[in-house]
Every structure is written in structure tokens, then in C-alpha cells.
Amino acid sequence: MPVPPNTSPKKQIPSSKLAAAKSPSTKVRCPLAHHTEKEIEHLLRGFSDSTVAGTLGLRTGSKTADFEACLFGILSFYRPAGSEELDGVPSGQTSLHQDLGLDSLSMLEAMFKVEELFDIHIENAELTKIATIDDARRLVEDKLQSQKSA
């Protein structure tokens, strides 16, 4: 599936700001060790530098801040053109629909990218339950955890 051009000028939140909002000592499983740096850069062509940097960080350190930068960057990429800029660092309770302006098609596209990147499968019924950034994060973490234990 071709990546749509990111035509709207959107404020990108640097991964360092996301890191400040999260506990730096928290770790998630290293979910992207199966991808090379070049593969990740190819999968995320057109995405913000902070999204790519956070995602590349997941290959080794797998800090929560990197995971948040990656996930939020992917969700932000699929925001509609002309969306309002975000004020400050998003919280886990940031609504994907009301605050980020993601409609069902945008959510589907974002989750396809997440599936491709993390090599997981998200059911359509699971997608309908994602309302906030925390919901998306928990779903991806649960999928990665179940993959690890399988």
C-alpha cells in the first residue's frame, strides 16, 4: 500500500518531549530487532524525523519513550490535512477522534502501518475499541507480549 504524502504542515512533537512525559526507566520488549535500520527507514519514509528516531531506538533500547514516539508519530502522520496543531505533549487520554481528528479510515491506515512495522495482527473488532493513545499503546503492547509468549 503506498504511503500517502504528508501534505499538511503539522507540528511534530520531538521524542525528547515525549520522553520527559514518561518514566525513562520503563522498558517494553524490543519489538523491532527483526528489522534492519534501512528497512525501518524504508517503512517510515515520509514520516517525521522524531518518529523514525523513536522507532530506530526500539531496535536496541526499547524504552517506553521510543515506543510512544513511534506510535504517536504514526498516528499523527495519518491526521487529516489541515488539522489543528497540537498544544504540548499528548497524554495517554488524548482522543484519537476528537483531539487528533482521526476518522475510521485514518485509524485503519495507521494500524496497517503498526501491523507492518511490529509484525502483529490487529482484528477489526479490536480497532473499534481504540479511543485514546493509551488504548492503542495497550493493544500493541498486548499483541507484542502474546507474540513473545507464543
Order of helices and strands: HHHHHHH
Provide the CATH superfamily.
ACP-like
CATH topology label = Non-ribosomal Peptide Synthetase Peptidyl Carrier Protein, Chain A
Q: First CA to last CA: what distance? A: 29 Å
Rg from C-alpha positions? 14 Å
Query: What's the architecture in CATH terms?
Result: Orthogonal Bundle
The total count of strands amounts to 0
Q: Unreliable stretches, pLDDT < 50, 5 or more residues?
A: 1-28
Overall 3D form? globular
Whole-number count of domains: 1
Mean pLDDT: 79
The helix-and-strand class reads: mainly alpha
| Percent of residues in beta strands | under 5%
Counting H and I runs of at least 4 residues, what is the number of helices?
7
Helix percentage range: 40-55%
CATH hierarchy class name: Mainly Alpha
Q: Can you summarize the main beta sheet?
A: none
Keywords:
Non-ribosomal Peptide Synthetase Peptidyl Carrier Protein, Chain A, 49% helix, disordered N terminus, single chain, 150 residues, 7 helices, mainly alpha
Compact summary:
With 150 residues, this protein is mainly alpha-helical.
